[in-house]
Specification:
Elements: E1 3-12, E2 15-26, E3 31-35, H1 40-43, H2 45-55, E4 64-70, H3 82-92, E5 104-106, E6 109-110, E7 116-117, H4 122-131, E8 136-140, H5 144-148, E9 154-158, H6 161-170, H7 198-210, E10 214-217, H8 224-229, H9 240-252, E11 268-269, H10 277-281, E12 282-283, E13 289-290, H11 292-295, E14 300-303, H12 311-315, H13 318-323, E15 325-330, E16 333-338, E17 342-347, H14 365-372, H15 377-380, E18 385-388, H16 394-398, H17 407-424, H18 438-441, H19 454-461, H20 467-483, H21 491-502
Parallel strand pairs: 3-4, 5-8, 8-9, 10-17, 10-18, 11-14, 14-17
Antiparallel strand pairs: 1-2, 2-4, 6-7, 12-13, 15-16
Length: 506
Amino acid sequence: MSYAKVLCVGLVGVTGHIVEVEADLAPGLPTVLLSGLPDTALNEARDRVRAAIVNSGQRWPNRRITVNLLPATLPKFGSAFDLAIAAALLAGSGELPLAPLDRVAVLGELGLDGAVRPVRGVLPMVAAAVRAGISRVVVPLDNAAEAAVVPGVRVRAVDTLHRLVAFIRDGAPLLDPPSGQPPAAHPGPDLADVAGQGFARRALEVAAAGGHHLALLGPPGAGKTMLAERLPSILPELDDAAALEVTALHSIAGLLPPDGRLLRRPPFQAPHHTATVASLVGGGTGLARPGSVSLAHRGVLFLDEAPEYTRGALEALRQPLESGRIVLTRARGGTEYPAQVQLVIAANPCPCAKPSGDISCECTPLARRRYLGRLSGPLLDRIDVQVTLNPLTAAELMGAGQTVESSTVVAERVGKARAAATARWAAGGWRINAEVPGPQLRRPRWRLPADDTRTLRRLLDSGTLSARGFDRVIRVAWTIADLDGRDRPDSGDVDEATQLRTGSMA
């Protein structure tokens, strides 16, 4: 036999595609030709595979070798094809039978010594194989736990090329995925740690219940960062579908924990204010990789000291905040990543940022306007809840006479409110109030009475509130009603939602 074919999987963004690795061996000058739109890492596979085969005790076929990756029009990236290429070459040279690899996807990178190294993106690759009707996969041992979380697939692992050859030739057993219970999750920051700031705590709870974007403005030490870091602790755990999406993104980025378990907690991303546009929304040469906005998918993206970010980085977030996805176009093709995030921004009110607040502020009105003007109107218009925090008093800091709720207590209310919203909007496929389109809220079935929205209409007519802002206030009003256990918002809910939008208690 001079021809062989082994199945593998390639990734474009988070979407996997079955790739047929063909090997043809013909008489002629010994060389290896690789076709099928490979990138640089894949082009170098010819040297890795040759060294791995020889160092695994197998004979290298000194013939003219052509390796083709089908479909040839699909760009191929990375080193996950190494193991499949080696198996196809050995089968094509007559060293191995092909039957044991029939309808089996083979993934893995080869070291020069024949060791099989882990690769990124195994989870979405295995999920793509299952969707294509493939129920058996061979993966690197270090990726086996990650692959095993995909339902409907039988996972076998290898640590060396020699083990794979022994399996194909002699039926020797492969390795099973590591078993055992995942380690207990360490408790995160608790909302009970936050002193005072009752109005901001209420805003945080409303934002969590409805999935609303949140802006926290106030002097240093008021608790902005503490509140933002505790938002994930009051969010519900991810369901199976969402957990697979989030875990797949972190797999592509190479950020999964060693045990490869599903990520059940909503992710929290807090990039530094020096972050570039590419690091926020995704980028890189060849095929763009996910950025912070995608790694925070189904979770929280926190921008501390938001005015210190570059204008371009902040403006790049506008489109994904609206659509819930990010499309990155490069010379070798476009990539789409999900980006349904809950944005939280924190900012000082002025450049001097005195801890005592505006009382001792040394900034001129122009300097204050310029500082906060770095947050553009279109970006702020997409933030549903905007609150101003006041400096803490000694009594608040010491907790005198206060009963502070923990994250567990607040999370229970948030979970009930989200369940009510999911049941209400189930027909439209929306999970939380923040996802409901504005036209849906204005239909007769869901439209609020004119008396309940009189103040809100006046703000819209005067230009104080945009049409987008009007819809966002209505969404927040629905969330407040859900938290209070009522079927529909009333005028009080609309007034509170308006207050949360304007950012102060007055």
